[in-house]
Amino acid sequence: MRKKLIISLAAILIILGCYRMYKIRLLHQNLIHEMQTRTNKYGFINVTFNITGQNGVVVIAPVNCLPERAKKAENLAEQLRSKNILVNLANEFNFRAELLPDTKPKKIEKIFQMIKYVIKKPAPIVSVNGKLKSNPTIEDILNELEG
Fold it and tell me: What are the pLDDT digits (tens) for 96-105?
């Protein structure tokens, strides 16, 4: 009797674990789909919320990024300035949910997940009028500005 109970509990735990893995995978697939629908032809993602709080171009190279990534951020900023494009170079940004007072928690979580998706990719992260892309080329940025 005790052996059957243990086997039954183990089976229930395995089923619950499989269901949890399924839900996590489904959430990930939904996020990828959302990202694809929000990505424009230049690879910039509209995350609904301008994380930099600034229009124009902001090149973000986190403090802890690799030196070659920081150098790429500086080079991008330099190239943009040489084309008379106003650009800000930053090493951080803030995402504050209280700036979206009328937004439902699920929507805020989705925005946060999209931002997290972008910032996990190689630096620099570039914001063009609030749209984000990690590690873009100068052509990507210029196309986004013109588009």
Answer: 666 666 777 8
How far, in Å, CA of 132 to CA of 130, rounded?
6
> Per residue in 18-48, pLDDT tens?
888 888 888 778 777 777 777 778 888 887 6
The mean predicted confidence, pLDDT, of the chain is 83
The answer to whether 90 and 52 have CB atoms below 8 angstroms apart is yes
pLDDT tens figures, 45-77:
887 666 666 678 989 988 888 899 999 999 999
Strand 125-128 with 45-46, pairing: unpaired
Could you give the CA distance from residue 3 to residue 72 in angstroms, rounded to a whole number? 62
Give, in degrees to the nearest 5, the angle at Cα 127 between 124 and 131: 130
Please count the CA atoms within 13 angstroms of the CA of 108 that sit on its side-chain side.
11
Angle at 31 between CA 29 and CA 37, to 5 degrees: 105
At 82, the amino acid letter reads S
The type of residue at 74 is E
